[in-house]
Amino acid sequence: MIVNNKLSCCEDDTHHDCNGILVKDKFDRPIISLRVSLTNRCNFNCIYCHHDGMLPSKSEMSPDEIFQILKIAKKFGIKKIRFSGGEPLLRDDIIDIIRKTSSLNFKDISITTNGVLLGKYAEDLLKAGLNRVNVSLDTLNHDTYNFITKGNYLNKVKSGILSCVDLGIHPIKINMVIIKGVNNNEVMNMFDFCKSNGLILQLIELMKADNKQIYDKYHFNMNFFEEKFEKMANEVKIRHFMQDRKKYYIDNGEIEIVKPMDNTKFCQNCTRLRITSEGNIKPCLLKNDNLVNIIEPIRNKLSENEIEKIFLKGVNNREPYYNQYPL
Ligand code: SAM
Ligand code: SF4
Q1: 28, 147, 175, 198: least buried by Cβ within 10 Å?
Q2: How many A from CA of 81 to the centre of ligand 1?
Q3: Is the pTM of this model over 0.90?
């Protein structure tokens, strides 16, 4: 459903310049952000990560193909673009991709990265138009870091983060996946590191990937942190247009909790559409059986109108994974 409605378009938790158009799915959820996976290649092998197998880099979407998808996203009122992967900084055309994206005047362009190559790219990313960065950092302990990522890069990642701080990139978020018995006792230590460098800490609930054993062994119930921070916080905000995430303000620091598992509110308030590195529209983080391929039609040079219809089919396939009411 395409809606021409300035008011609902601006119900996002930040105000912005918009053309009044937005697209909503069948469940009346506006689509505000698009997360684009640029590659499924990675230089890490994190214990919890879902690995799809390595797609040869020549099959990845080109900067021009990505630009074509983003142009449609812009036309349908999407405000925020986040690039992810795999590891997005493994793309040697990453600066070109950010520059092209920036020319479309989205409200916000961000990247999620493991941070190893941040030191190398941060300045050029900023110049190309990147607004924000999320860096995955689950621990500040070297042994634990090596255990989780199978890579000995903690110092390099920390210095990449600090180079973003020096460049004035803001906000910088630290993504910390909570892994039971591995890093759940390190949260306050990580929070101190974040506070002292002006970073926002984002605690992420471990999700079920392919490996059920990993989930069963390491899943940690995030209610523990919600209850703890509720008592400590000077202020708590609920980010309605960001999956109803809770954000806690504690002693001049900020902690946000991302809790997707068994969470109907997360789904009810999800405003995000995804594009996989293979060029499929992925309507839901937790589902893979409703993908819509958009890259083949682009490669086969279908008309803009046909490709827009395919984009809207992806939107139309969105259904809350955890629903209060059975579908
Ligand atoms: N390689 C980049 C990175 O690690 O930041 C971007 C891709 S990674 C898939 C994006 C985010 O998903 C990271 O913050 C990572 O920690 C998180 N992630 C991966 N697998 C997860 C899982 N099973 N549960 C929760 N978060 C996960
Ligand atoms: Fe997965 Fe990111 Fe870790 Fe790579 S760095 S294995 S993509 S979580």
Answers
A1: 28
A2: 17
A3: yes
